[in-house]
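Technical note accompanying the year-one report. For the benefit of new consortium partners, we illustrate the data format agreed upon in the data management plan: each record pairs a sequence with a structure-token string. No post-processing was applied to the example shown here.
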Amino acid sequence: MKKILFLDRDGTLIHEPTDNFQIDSLEKLSFLPGAITNLRKIVESQQYELVMVTNQDGLGTPSFPEETFWPAHRKMLEILAAEGITFHAEHIDRTFKKDNLPTRKPGTGMLEAYFSGEYDLAHSYVVGDRHTDIQLAKNLGAKGILLGLSEDRVDDIDRSSWEDALALDAHSWADIAAFLLKGKSRTATVRRSTKETDIYVQLNLDGKGKAKIQTGLGFFDHMLEQLCKHSGMDLEIEVVGDLHIDEHHTIEDTAITLGEALKVALGDKRGMQRYGHCILPMDEAQATVALDFSGRPYLRFEGAFHREKVGDFPTEMVKHFCYSLAVASGCTLHVHFSGENDHHQIEAIFKSLAQATRQAVKLIPGSTELPSTKGIL
């Protein structure tokens, strides 16, 4: 079932003027600090459909003419849409408080469609800056998030009538995003210990490309840093391996553990691109990587190296790294490369793999669909 984020407008998304409490000109339109940035994060998490619910006292009457309302409202929607933030529906009540009609918040008269059973109201939220927004949440069977309620906006509603519906008393939009996204981080921590290696991997798919790598193999560390930087993933890898024997177990088991971390972080894969492809040059060398997080491991690897090692890294282990990564992550991976300098060839492979991964794990704004006609990945 769909979860909804019901959003108040004035005082929640945009500043509410204190003169007449109406945004009736473009000059009065200004967003609350962090509203756009943090709402975009929430949208990109794919968890909620956005629905606007707002009281606009007397809209369409001489006290609030239509022509003064719509230009600023449309400009607000245009700015938000440019950041990937769109609303599934807008519900605007035009009545006055004295009219006491069921369509006015905290009444649910405008929102009857959401009681159809199609929506998961129990895990939906109403975000607003007034007590009536939290009362609306209670009336919907949802939870409320109160944003910076000030004393001059206390509605004449007994706190005891809505307090049990309050999930968060927020001081900022950053507080709201942190609260709503706490269960949706695409991260993984995997430790794999054998008699040959002890490997720790911490991964954040939606990171900033930060790397902390220590495998005991300098060139391998450098390649994993390239993978991290050019994929945008945050990646921490610590390896204790049997390098006194050779490099094989360290490289193979690192690939397995990283693949397992990718599989965990991808979760159910809903809303993600799934496919990635990159052709990347490095001086005279070129690498092409195409991948599909299909759940069906497969490796096609074409190209030739000219040396036995680059630094402390055996060139034969590039293929085995790719194979182990594909199997552990459930990825179909095609690698083609050419060139004269093996350092360039290997680095082009890792950078191209990074770019292809970046594409494949990217979330499609507004989508919660599984990228498969089979219904499972």
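Partners are asked to follow this layout when depositing records. Residues 150-157 have pLDDT under 50 and may be disordered.
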